[in-house]
Amino acid sequence: MSEINVYQIDCKIYLLKNLELRSMLYEISSFIDRSLCKDEMMLEFHKKREYKNYVHSGFKEIEKDKLYKQGKIYNFSIRCIDKKLKDYFSLFLKDTSTDTMKGLVTIEKIIPRNYIEKLYTLTPALIKLDGGYWKGNINFSTYEKRLIDNSIKKAKAILGEDFSEDFLLYNYIKVLNNKPILSRFKNISLLGDKIELNIADNERAQQIAYILLGTGILENNSRGYGFVNYSSGD
User: Fold this and answer.
1) Tell me, what CATH number does 48's domain have?
2) Mean pLDDT by 10-residue block, N- to C-terminus, for the chain (234 residues)?
3) pLDDT for res 174
4) Please, is 130 exposed, middle or buried when counting C-beta atoms within 10 Å of its C-beta (0-12, 13-18, 19+)?
5) Which helix (H) or strand (E) holds 145?
6) pTM exceeding 0.90
7) Which residues have a Cβ under 8 Å from the Cβ of 182 and sit 6 or more positions away?
8) Which of 31, 107, 105, 101 is nearest to 72 (CA)?
9) Residues with Cβ < 8 Å from 80, sequence gap 6 or more?
10) Which of 4, 126, 133, 141 is deepest in the core (most CB within 10 A)?
11) How many angstroms separate the CA atoms of 193 and 175, rounded?
C-alpha cells in the first residue's frame, strides 16, 4: 500500500472582534481562504469544486458563554495530506488577516502512524442534502453508506489505487449528540453531528482511518466540518 503523511499546522491568531461559537468555523475558513488568495495557483485550487483534502478544527479554547472575545489569542489546527499545501499554510497563515482575526504564529508537525482504535469528531460531521438535515430525509443505513463511500473515495484519490472495497471499515458507529449541532455558514444554518467510529482491525481500515485524520470525515471539510481525532486504546 502507498505511504502518505498527515500534516498538522497549529495556528495562533489574535481575535479582532467578538465571535459567536456558531460562526466560528465559518470565520476560520474565511481566514484560511484569505491566505489561499495570496497566490494565483492556490487561488485556482481554492476555486475548484473537488476534494481539497484539508480540514480545520475550531478554536481549541472553550468559552463557557459561547462567545470568543475581542483582544484574546486563540488557537486552531489545519490538517492536510499534501506537503506543498502544508508548507504554504505554514508560511502564509501567520501573515494573514481578515476583519475578524489576525494570524500570529504557525507550528507544523506530522501526525504519527499509530494503531487507531477510535475516530471521533471534534467538529460536526455534515451531510449535504436538498432537504436539509439528514434525519427525516434518509435512514441511518443510507447515512452509513454515504460515510463509507465518501471515506473510500477520498482514500482512492489520495493513494491512486482502485482497491477492493471488500473490507470492514468500522465495527460500530455512535452519534454522540442528542440533538443536531447548528453552525452558521454565510446566511444559512447547517446541522451536523458529533460521531464516533470504532475502527476495524485490518490494514485497509487502519490506512483509511489515518487518511481521514488529514482530510476530515464526510463533507464540507475545508469549511471545518468533520475534523477528527483518534484514540489508540490502552
Assistant:
1) 3.30.70.1890
2) 85 98 96 90 77 93 97 98 94 96 98 96 94 92 96 94 93 94 89 97 96 96 96 76
3) 96
4) exposed
5) helix 140-159
6) yes
7) 22, 189, 190, 191
8) 101
9) 6, 7, 9, 53, 54, 55, 86, 89, 214
10) 126
11) 7
**What is the grid cell recorded at 96?**
494573514
134: Cβ contacts below 8 Å, ≥ 6 apart: 127, 143
Among 111, 133, 152, the domain-final residue is 111
Residue 187: how many CB atoms within 10 A of its CB?
A: 5
Cβ atoms of 36 and 8 within 8 Å: the answer is no
Q: Within 10 Å of residue 198's Cβ, how many Cβ atoms?
A: 17
Q: How far apart are CA 100 and CA 207, in angstroms?
A: 37
pLDDT value of residue 1: 46
Q: Which three cell numbers stand for residue 87?
A: 508548507
Domain finish residue from 111, 140, 156: 111
> Do 140 and 180 share a domain, yes or no?
yes
Kindly state the cell numbers that stand for 121: 469528531
At position 86, the amino acid (one-letter code) is K
Q: Do residues 75 and 60 lie in contact, with contact meaning Cβ atoms separated by under 8 Å? A: yes
